[in-house]
Each structure stands twice: as structure tokens, then as C-alpha cells.
Amino acid sequence: MEAMLAEQPLLVSVMLGVLAGGLIYGWLQTGKKAAAVAGLIFGLLIPVAWLVASRWETDREQIESLIYEIADAVERNDHEAAVKVIGDPKTKEQARQELSNWTFHLAAVNNISRIDIIEGTYPQEADVHMSVKVNVSGRGVRNVRVPRRLILKFEERDGGWVVTDYRHMPIVGGPDRYSTPAR
N or C: which end of the chain has fewer CB within 10 A? Predict the structure, then answer.
């Protein structure tokens, strides 16, 4: 219910509107004042639902925001800013090494297909599956567009999210020679 209220205010508003409309219709048919008051209250809750949704940042929204910040840092070739959100030292070093091989002209998130918050884990973990596109130069190529599938593993630490592992590979098929080696 919390996720619906925070992430889907339109659906909540429609449900509140149907309840408000039904209660007001009931008041018009029966004349019972309680139905009119309840209908008005449900109607007044519609803007409250939008206000709550705009101010409540869920874990999924925090992770999504972090993903776009990382993409922005990669596009600016600010490798230190891009790896500062990586919480695992080996993964951080691997990312630093991979990023230093390329000059990025574009780094954009195409689609975040899933953000799965793994219930019952402590610290809380999340898996993210997404596709990205980058324009890179280096290793004998110049400003080449490369679409990639990216799988990130996040962990919540000190009230924020950090990347603990990542893998990138072609959009379709298995790993290629540029893919992150499996651990």
C-alpha cells in the first residue's frame, strides 16, 4: 500500500474519486448527510495523495536517482564521482580500471526494466536490470555508439544505497570480450 501511495498517485486518486463520487451519488439518492460528508472527505484526499507522493521518496526512486547521477558522471568522464557510489573495494577498482580505458561522449540510460528490492535481507539489497547506451572513444575506436545491458546489485548502507556488484554485456546474448568478467 505504501508503494502504491508513493509511486502511483494517479491510481490512488482514481480510487478516491470513485469512492467520493459513489458516496455523493448515494447522498443524492438517499439524502443522508453522512454520505455527503464522507464523499467530500474522500474528494479532499485526492490532492493530499499527490502531495504525499511528491514528497515521499521510496527506495526504488532513490536507486533510480542514483543511477542517473552515475550516468551523468560517466558522461562527464568524472570517474571518481562515478565510482564513489560503489561500496565494494574490488568492484570499485574494477570499475575504475574499465572506465579509464574509455573517453565517453554520451552515457544515457535507455530503460530501467526492473528494480527489485529483495525482501528479508539485512542490510537491504536490490537488483537492477537496465539498458544503457554510450558513445565511446579509445582502444582504436572513435566515438562509437555501444548499447549495453547492465545488471547492478545495490545494498543499503548508512541510509543510502551503494553498488556492490555490476555486470555489463551486450543487449542480446551472452557476454562478449568487453563484458564484465563473472565472479
Answer: N
